[in-house]
């Protein structure tokens, strides 16, 4: 057989989805494993959203739509952005596609030429670096560890810019760290980006999941110059418990970017399910109470998880105030033998904890940081209690 694509063959599988697949396989095999791998709300999609999709099917909304989505769903996106941030986008600047993931891919595809560098604050969500590589770009991690609350500074970004830097990906609140940038921090970073004429790809998919009264600042509210450089990425997966509907959106400060994204999608994915678009429009424009109800539950779970982790010898975490992830520091476990395995890395720990402790967590090596594993608290309190009980038992050796 002839050689497969060198670029695509070098792509690593998504670590989050790989853990989730292994967890689901073990479960299907009758093994009583508890999963904290993929960040996916355990709640069901609210009924009024499901009903909108059912109605669309009944009304015969079962045909192709424009590649960037129906006018109705793009108006719904514009409505939600205006409501939440007071910024107006016209429908020609908005793209609706198959989850925030597809919107991110289309955004990178629209701005990158081979060899272009993209600054990626680390720890980062696993798909950014792989998407950039798939498109011939070069991801350039800019690291901030636990001692800096996992947040990069404007000075670090400035120092990382080269003649080849084309864009930055800013994920706020962050997956995997759960950290939120203050308006001042974000504004200082955005100013550097504008000065160097970088595209700012702002992944704000967790913006409605902020805790302790933390104030969220969207990049699009930082002034006209910043807005012009920004491609806002968002979606309904996390806030409306709609992961399986595959609905995400992009809103571009520069309409020319939206045009390139839409054209590329018209040849690759095409439009997403017409009835899914109707559901997304309902999610964005219909009653919003369930978003807040779910947020409150996430906050309680986070409090429990953080407190328990910090009460267990050998592990620790700092308290995140957004998204639904906790980064557990396992540095003190390196060199110990647990479940019959010598732990030399977070990957060893995650594998032994899954196979012997029957708990699935994600090793953060894939997120660009050593000696941490990520737990999600997008699962029931009962599961969280059980998972942490198992951690205590597992650490006893
Ligand atoms: N961005 C981040 C930071 C995420 O955690 C996820 C989770 N899958 C996505 C984008 C993609 O979300 P989706 O494709 O489900 O909209
Ligand atoms: N974004 C979630 C996570 O990081 C879901 C899985 C994925 O799409 O990667 O776990």
Question: Would you write up a description of this structure?
Answer:
The chain is α/β, with parallel strands linked by helices and 397 residues long. It has helices at residues 6-9, 15-28, 47-58, 71-85, 99-111, 126-134, 154-160, 183-195, 224-229, 255-267, 274-285, 289-311, 346-355, 381-395, and strands at residues 34-35, 94-97, 117-122, 138-143, 165-171, 199-203, 230-235, 248-252, 325-329, 337-338, 341-342, 359-360, 362-363, 372-376. The strands form four sheets. It has a seven-stranded mixed beta sheet, sandwiched between helices. It has a three-stranded antiparallel beta sheet with strand order 9-14-13. Strands 1-12 form a two-stranded parallel sheet. Strand 3 (117-122), helix 6 (126-134) and strand 4 (138-143) form a beta-alpha-beta unit. Helix 5 (99-111) crosses helix 6 (126-134), helix 7 (154-160) packs parallel to helix 8 (183-195) and helix 12 (289-311) runs parallel beside helix 14 (381-395). The longest helix is centred in the last third of the chain and has 23 residues, at 289-311. The model has no long low-confidence stretch (mean pLDDT 97). Residues 14, 16-17, 38-40, 125, 127, 175 line the site of glutamic acid (GLU).
């Amino acid at each position: 057989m002839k050689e497969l694509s060198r670029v695509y063959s070098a792509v690593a599988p998504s670590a989050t989805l790989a853990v989730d697949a292994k967890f689901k396989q073990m479960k299907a095999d009758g093994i009583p494993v508890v999963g904290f791998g993929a960040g996916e709300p355990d709640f069901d999609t609210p009924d009024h959203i499901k009903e909108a999709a059912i109605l669309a099917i009944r009304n015969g909304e079962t045909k192709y739509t424009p590649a960037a989505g129906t006018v109705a769903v793009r108006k719904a996106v514009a409505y939600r952005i205006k409501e939440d941030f007071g910024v107006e986008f016209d429908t020609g600047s908005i793209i609706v596609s198959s989850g925030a993931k597809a919107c991110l891919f289309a955004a990178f595809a629209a701005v990158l030429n081979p060899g272009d560098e993209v600054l990626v604050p680390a720890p980062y969500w696993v798909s950014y670096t792989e998407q950039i590589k798939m498109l011939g770009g070069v991801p350039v991690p800019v690291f901030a560890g636990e001692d800096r609350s996992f947040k990069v500074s404007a000075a670090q970004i400035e120092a990382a810019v080269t003649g080849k830097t084309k864009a930055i990906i800013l994920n706020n609140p962050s997956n995997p760290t759960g950290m939120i940038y203050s308006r001042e921090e974000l504004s200082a970073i955005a100013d550097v980006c504008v000065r160097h004429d970088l595209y700012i790809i702002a992944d704000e998919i967790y913006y409605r999941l902020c805790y302790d009264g933390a104030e969220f600042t969207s990049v699009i509210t930082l002034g006209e110059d910043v807005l012009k450089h920004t491609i806002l990425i968002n979606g309904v997966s996390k806030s409306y418990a709609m992961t399986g509907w595959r609905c995400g959106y992009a809103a571009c400060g520069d309409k020319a970017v939206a045009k390139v994204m839409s054209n590329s999608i018209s040849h690759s994915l095409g439009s997403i399910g017409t009835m899914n678009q109707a559901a997304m429009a309902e999610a964005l424009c219909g009653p919003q109470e369930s978003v807040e109800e779910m947020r409150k539950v996430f906050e309680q779970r986070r409090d429990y998880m953080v407190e328990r982790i910090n009460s267990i010898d050998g592990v620790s975490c700092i308290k995140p105030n957004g998204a639904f992830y906790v980064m557990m520091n396992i540095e003190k476990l390196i060199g110990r033998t647990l479940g019959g395995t010598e732990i030399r890395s977070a990957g060893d720990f995650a594998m032994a904890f899954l196979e012997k402790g029957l708990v699935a967590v994600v090793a953060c090596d894939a997120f660009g940081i050593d000696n941490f594993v990520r737990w999600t608290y997008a699962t029931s309190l009962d599961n969280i209690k059980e998972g942490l009980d198992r951690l205590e038992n597992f650490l006893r050796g």
